[in-house]
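Changelog-adjacent note: as of this version, every example in the card shows the full chain rather than a window. The one below runs 148 residues end to end.
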Amino acid sequence: MHPLLKITPIMLLAACQPSTTELKTGYVNTEHVLAKMKMKQDLDLKLAAMQEKKQPEINQVSNELESVKAEILNSKIQEADYMNELKEKRNHLHWRLENLMKSIDDSAAVYKQRATVVINEKILSFGKANEYQYILPLNTVLYADSAL
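Full-length structure tokens:
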């Protein structure tokens, strides 16, 4: 047996031992806080408005794409130039649709990031002001005594 493997359980046990000094520790469910933030709710409204504004264009491009796909499948004209033109059109429409959807997803990610930065700043200032040694995200605690 490798010598390091003999001491690993001892090191793990030592790392899990409770501290002799009491540390002020807080836990935050950041997803819950994020969902309750007015800023997040405002950003969600902006995102919904963006989605609603782009939906007609998304529908139009989707319909055109389906039409081109059907035309490719059902075409009686098998001329190479005609088929290449249809396939180019299909690829362009597919690209446009992906970009429309990506712009909405990117905006959602930016909005969530903005709100997360605000939450983190508030947690930092709260922790310092109230002399916490740790404030941990609740959703990543691997174990906690149920009494706590």
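Structural remarks: The beta strands are 25-28, 134-137.
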